[in-house]
Amino acid sequence: MSPFHALLALHNLAALVWVGGMFFAWMILRPAAVSALQPPERLRLWFDVFPRFFLWVWAAVLILPISGVGMLHMGFGGFAQMPFHVQLMIGLYLVMLSLFLRVQLLLLPPLRRAVEAGDWPAGGAALGDIRRMVGANLLVGVVLVFVAVARPSF
């Protein structure tokens, strides 16, 4: 396996973890939790799920630009020769990173405080804010994956 293809595999795995994790949480786990759990248990579940998932997202946040810049230099000779689809992917990554940081730094602390205080209405409101932000990030991630898959071959 060439170094370029090793970076590509690592890059794709990081994207799969991040976007696939959001897809699973939004489309599978959330509806199952709503139907099977009462609000206090549901909030505790998400309170436990987010840190576990976010650890993997942080890994993806680091791996994606490192592997992407490596591929950029190996495949295109650096930033000066960067094609438009790569520019678009970088821009969409930055949008996803911004949305993730908003959840991690601004929306997760109110959920933590609400769950620790047993304030289920406030926790539900905080979880709703996180859900909307994750939904937006999932949409951006799906668009990014489409751009990556539909790109011209290297």
From TrEMBL:
Domain of life: Bacteria
Chain ranges of the Copper resistance protein D domain: 49-150
Keywords of the record: Membrane, Transmembrane, Transmembrane helix
Keyword Membrane: yes
Sequence intervals crossing the membrane: 55-76, 88-110, 130-150
Pfam family name, one: CopD
InterPro entries linked to this entry: Cu-R_CopD_dom
Entry GO CC: membrane
Keyword Ubl conjugation: no
Protein name, entry field: Copper resistance protein D domain-containing protein
Organism classification: Bacteria, Pseudomonadati, Pseudomonadota, Gammaproteobacteria, Pseudomonadales
